[in-house]
Amino acid sequence: MTQLHTKTGPAHIWCLFTYLRLQHLSIKPHLAPFHEISNLVSSSLILIDIQELWLAYSVVDDIRMQSYSCHIFLFNVDFASGITASKEFKGDDMKVEVATEERASLEASGAWFMEEKRLIRKLDRRILPIACLLYLFAYLDRSNLGNARVLTGTNDGKPPLPTDALGGDPTGILFDWVNSAFFFSYILCQVPATILSKLVAPRIWLALAAIGWGTCSTLMSTGFDFGGLMTTRVFLGIFEAGFGPAIPLYFSLFYTKEEMGLRMAYWFGFAAVAGAFGGIVAFGIQNAILPFSNWRLLFIVEGLPAICLGIMTFFFLPDRPESTHYLDEREREIAIARMNRGTSGDVGAVVNRSHISMAFRDWRIYTGGVIYFALNCSLASTSAFLPTILKTLGFSSARVQLMTVPPYAVAAFVIVLGSWISDRLQSRGIPIALASLVGGVGYLILLFVPTNLHARYFATFCITSGTYTSIGIIIAWFAHNLGSETKKATGIPMFMAIGQCGSILGSHLFPTTEGPRYIKGFAVCCGLEIFGALCALVMTISYRLDNALRNKLHGVPKEDARVDVAEMADKAPTFRYII
């Protein structure tokens, strides 16, 4: 048996079990009294500090703590191979006994833990691919105007969209309005659409939304004038309003607050993937020989897959945990327990009117909207004008399409990494602030380094990585901190709607007449990125102070204890915010 040597207190006893393989040992702060732990390769360890009365037992890949007031119980899934005690240990220092009931309870906890892990993997396999692919094509369909603006026929010289359908548009104003038309309807429809989504099965709601926006995007290929393009963009915004804000609400039904950040990163990261993928598709279409303009084929190629995905969503996406047929009875029981672990309240097809009112009176939602406004101004500018900005660096139209790929590819990696760190630290505000500052640095480079092409291209990496990461994390932040389902269904689209006003502003910051420097556009986006970072820090301080006050008045709640948010949503005394 492996021997352990420690600096002992009044009495320490070490129990080493050799029948459990320790896959990953993570020492918690409670184990500070133990100074030297060595030679742990294939065994599971139980450490008991008699003085502090702490029991640490390993469950597959985590060290879990439990405190006892009088007796300390030892357990193992199989049998203990031995006990090594320090020389100072006295038989009357403590009573050690094997408790059948406690052992069964702990074994049950281990079994539940394993079942829960299997359930999470099963949900990930079904939910994430569908949700991520839907967002990939949703974002392609809203942002492909940027590629269409510079997309010419390489072989036959067919004109890009402004020349073909907007009469040349020498000032770029008509293109700006076509681009921003999407956001007007998107903003107006977000709140009512997301509240209404609570009353409809998720797979039906999301399927109809995908089929709708895919149809609108495909019909954009038939636009021959300003009015036709404006109409299709308005309806595109209506259908996408039923998708974007509904996904964070849908994810919160299946994932806990510790898991949301990374899942939202996977989902929102596909916006960056869409930027890279869109550039590759546009490059391929640019070389096609067609009887019509190449940009029209772009809308068809990126619109039809959304319709097919919508049909798949109807058949394959799970509904709510309590009603989905994708899970068996045991899995449904675990999923419902997970959903209720943090909060319990207005679940199902129920709308709490008082929580809607609370959302409209919550200043933090409006502050979050200001942050989202700042980020979306940059995001919309990047999506619609990155090809145009890159063209000012001297690249050809064909090469511009390919040069948009690396910044988006790096952004997709950074958003996952940043959100993983955010989940591990259970911190949202500070990562948002840091990522926003990175985006601000990118705009500063574009402002003050006008001739160095390498530096300016590097700036696009900073802008995409910083902006996309911030947006992914802030969505996860509000997906937990609003408490009840109704307040989430109201508050999430509220702050998103406020934020999308930034997209309208961003659509008008880069008129053709101000190229190639675009000083006004870069300066506005830079200032907003920095202001958004400051607002995120204000929110962090506010949440921290609120948590501290509730701990002082009501005590520190037990970890994973159920919080009843049916009446007060996030204002419930035992509810704690993620900071």
Automatic annotation (TrEMBL):
It is found in: Membrane. It is a multi-pass membrane protein. Keywords: Membrane, Transmembrane, Transmembrane helix, Transport. The chain crosses the membrane at residues 123-140, 177-197, 204-222, 234-253, 265-285, 297-317, 363-385, 405-422, 429-449, 455-479, 491-509, 521-543. GO terms for molecular function: transmembrane transporter activity. Its main location: membrane. Residues 127-550 form the Major facilitator superfamily (MFS) profile domain. One of its GO terms (cellular component) is membrane. This is Major facilitator superfamily protein. It comes from Lentinula edodes (Shiitake mushroom). The lineage of its organism: Eukaryota, Fungi, Dikarya, Basidiomycota, Agaricomycotina.
